[in-house]
Amino acid sequence: MTLTLDILLSGLVLGGMYALIALGLTLQYGIARIINLSYGEFLIAAAFGALFLYTGMAVNPILGMIVVVPAAFVSNWLLYQVVLMPLVRRAKNQGMLEVDSILGTFGVLFVIQGVMLVTFGGSLQSYSYLSVPVYILGTTLALNRILALVFALIIGGVLYLFLTRTRYGTALRAVAVNPAAAQLTGIDIRAASALAFATGGAIVGAGGVLISMFLTFSAAMGVVFTMKALIVVIMGGIGNMLGALIAGVLLGISETAVARLVDPGLTIAVTYALFLGVLLWRPTGLFGRPAR
Hey, what CATH class is 2-281 in? Predict the structure, then answer.
């Protein structure tokens, strides 16, 4: 019973992080229609930012988000305006835009990764922040993991309220559903896409700070988080926030169970096994709608 509860709680924390990261990618792809392969590099860059602020300036990671998250928002907005906007303008259709964005962000991936390798080196990095045990129903969980999950829930809740209770959020959802119809109502599609892309970058920046509090990371790990975010988005159904949440939690619990009960080296295998299973069973994702 204790082992089961330990796996469940640890899996919820990890799954909550996956879900938070996937929400940002859902915004970028669901609204801006950009497949951003450099997505995970911004997460690792945010983690290094938190590390620098904590070890170099004694700023705790939670306060550090006040700096890191706006920086992630601005950098992603600039990436969209400078690198991706020319691709959007010349794309004749959605398929061409997806191919061009994959190639463009693939190059950005190596630029960001190279800068981080030169600046921080290629070794694994971590820092100790609130690594104190907390006892919950007979099992132990580190306080930094609990704090990360709480802030992930808060950020996810704020994003949900933003998308459902504000005019800007309504405009973004309209663009996601039907860009052509949204443009007819006076919505600036390019401005909405830039806002969605930058907001997705801010979310992954927050995720990078939270993950850095309890996981080791290196400059070359960004692609791992990009792939897991893509898997969660596709498993949940592209553009579906609830689907991303459930798929992220499912993935986190599955990885934790395999790591604790079988072998930690098999976590990637179970990730792709789940992914393939969902694709075979429901090609449009757990909550995706079949195309008509």
Answer: mainly alpha
